[in-house]
Specification:
24% helix, 123 residues, four-stranded antiparallel beta sheet, alpha+beta, three-stranded mixed beta sheet
């Protein structure tokens, strides 16, 4: 009887420990990407449209965006929330200026963090 009790107790403790460990390892925050758009002199660009793509092919063909274009704020920033921790391709445009060839892709995003990236638009 004692052996059965101890076996059940040990299994219960192991189960609770495993469950707690799995909960601790999950990120508390969603994955964010904060993009700052700058001009060739390093000045912020307010009102630029920023679109995210999950592949280089989609970026070049401008199809299947992960997130539709969002406008940068007065600090030249736009924040994308609840993203997968992968590499993204950024298209930033304002008027006749864009970022083609200037900081187009991110590194793989860090899960559960606010990832920061700058991109430069030029004529």
């Amino acid at each position: 009887m004692k052996k059965a009790f101890y076996s059940v107790a040990i299994l219960t403790v192991l189960s609770l420990t495993t469950s707690a460990f799995n909960t601790i390892n999950k990120p508390l925050l969603p994955t964010f990407l904060k993009v700052t758009v700058l001009d060739h002199l390093g000045n912020i660009v307010e009102g630029a449209t920023v679109t995210l793509y999950a592949s280089e092919e989609d970026y070049f063909e401008e199809k299947k965006p992960v997130r539709e274009g969002e406008k940068t704020d007065k600090k030249g920033r736009v924040t994308f929330k609840k993203l997968e921790p992968i590499q993204y391709y950024i298209h930033a445009k304002k008027g006749d200026k864009d970022n083609v060839g200037e900081g187009v892709s991110t590194s793989k995003l860090i899960e559960g963090k606010i990832n920061l990236v700058n991109t430069i638009i030029k004529e």
